[in-house]
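#data-curation
PF: Archiving a pair of folding outputs for the training set. Convention for this channel: one message per protein, sequence first, structure tokens after, nothing in between. First:
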Amino acid sequence: MATFAARPMEPAERPAWDALWLASHRWLPQSPAVLEAACGAALAPWGVFESTRLVAALAFAREVKFGRTALRHAAPVSFQGVLTAPGIDRDEAMAAIARAVPGACARADAILGPGEVDARPFAWNGWSAAPHYNFVNRLDAPGGIEASLSPAARRQLRKARGAGLRAERGDGLGELERLRAATTARHSFADAVTWEGYQRLFALGAAAGTGVRSAVLLARSEDGAVHAGALLLADAHRTYYAMGASDPGLLGSGAPTLLHTDGSALLAAEGWPAVYDWCGANTPGVARFKEGFGPVLELLMRIEWASPAAALWRRLRA
């Protein structure tokens, strides 16, 4: 049996990490460039080594509060998973990470990738594992997303089209920035990705040879007002709804429904990947909106470790 050891990666080991991803299935949320763009200086990649050879990786976003370090899910979408070299025992690689990470933080969490439902190497080393839900649609289904709309969502789409709204490609993040700021203020939530991170992700997708695509979609009315917008990312396998926003002063126009229905049709016509990943289905209000598009529920696994002190603090705050 191979002997694996996990530890934080050094900057000089980035080429080995890149090579590991290039030899893999090339999921977008496992790309070192994507993770670096999303997290910036907070990126904390961990590697699993067989002697000096990098054989697996799992990156986190480092967060320090009240003198305590937390290692958070780093990907800008719903999952990441453990990136492993071909032929490597995944269970042994995951167990090496599970044993090593708790010594460096008070809390840690990550979301495994599609099909990675066996989280026992983490559970057997003191981590918890729980379902994490996601939605996906098929853009290549007959009629696209529009064909699977619920009656309520179909009414919203008719309302938006009747008012003259249209979906279009944006040429940058400028109009989306205003919408996103208004949305976060209205709902009082802290985004896991900074605006600078979204800018880096958009630029990465616009560059050649990265294995990543990016696009901004806008729902605009005839008078030029932007009602809703979204940032989409893609790898060779999926189109990811990475971030969205709508104008709080223009609610009820049906724009978000039109944005996804007609906007996804634009991307499908351009040859974007047919799996439309909604990037989460775990918040009740957001999940209800996404359910209107008739998606398929995808089960992912979220792993978490907390020191006894951190676990107690969490219980006291609950």
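PF: Second:
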Amino acid sequence: MMFFLIKNYPQVLISISMLMILCAASRLIWSRSLSLIKDFRAIYRTLKIRKWLRLLIILVFFLNCVALPLKAQQNISADISLNYVKASQGLNPNGTRYNPAGILSTEILENAVEKGALHDITAKDLGRVLSVVPKVQGNSYDEGQYFISTQFVLSYNANQDTASLDGELLLNLAAESYKEWFVSKYSDNVGALDMNFTEFEREDYLDICEYLKKRADLIRAYMTGMASEEPAFQSASNGETFQSVASQADNVSAVMVEKLEAYLLENGVSKSTDAYMSRLGFQNVFSYFDGERADSSYKNSLAAISMYEDDMARIVLVPTVDTEYQFYMSQTRIGIDDFAKRAESYSNNRTKINDGIVRNNHILNQLSTFSHSSGTDERAETLVMQIEAELNKLADKAQTMIKEYSASQSNKYITITVSSVEERAIRIIIDIVFYTVLFAFAVYCAAFTVVMGISFKRAKHVKNRAAAGE
């Protein structure tokens, strides 16, 4: 009962005030007596009702001071602003379509309830009292008024189930929960930098070298990409920059892994020499056929170019003008261009295959030269462990830096501003003054009506007595 009374208090007070004002206005129009209106002030001063009117107005004033702040707690809003470039296109930071309805998703509301340790309310209950709308609404029916909003208003309107709770707290919980979800979802993914070496522990040493080199190259490429995005960023925790970590990863690949590989080849070290040599032999056989196929395709492309190049070149020159309207003969893209690109691709592929065969032959030669027994090698194991430790160290540095950078950037993606206590206090004071003045005006209008009635009766009585005296 108290909830509905507070919720509808402004409407009730306005209705009562307007009713008194309308009654006074209708009474004035009905009487149509200017003389009675002139006598109002004199008659009003003789009435004792003035004291009661003042007491009533003071009572309503104190009632406003209690009810209107409680009413304000039932209706609070927060501004949500999207601050990244793609927001103006209606997109998320990763280019997918932005949907403001996600602010009130079950996942976010459940997290808000959990964050606030709210035992008497569920996510469904919270969803009933929250709403979100664009701060500036466009018009989908008029092309000239199309507008993609980057600002939204999250509003809390209490109901009977949430009236006993702090409305500002509920709104803050929902807003912060959405911001945390948004930041975590659209921050850079550092999972690719997780180092896991257990799956390659049983592989041969040269295969481990290839794997370690790829992991080092991954860190280098990732850090180089981050450096191109923000060259000046420096980690607050370790003082590193993206480029410095990329250089360290490059050193691991170019120095430490190369040192391991050189040791293995120079000493013919392998966990299983026969099996590894057999595998390289099969690779060379298949690579040989792949190289022959690439070589044949390369020669066919050259033959096609030589057959049609002269004829095609004569018919593809098109007269046209440039941006400054100067005449020239334009050569358009023709089929010969495709043959040329294919020939280049086949040539590069053939060279790559040949390089692989040469490398495999070198490894086969080294392994066959030395008569080491197969199995683990203490020196090789030590070098592998050193490289893994260095890669783990670099990966940790890289992940820490990316998280720091993402936090600094992602927090700028979205800004949430809950209406401040000062703003609400000013609004409440204005409302208290407005409703008090309105009620006071209405009460005085009602008193005026009463005085009008008394004046009318007195005038009528005087008129009757005058008529009787005549």
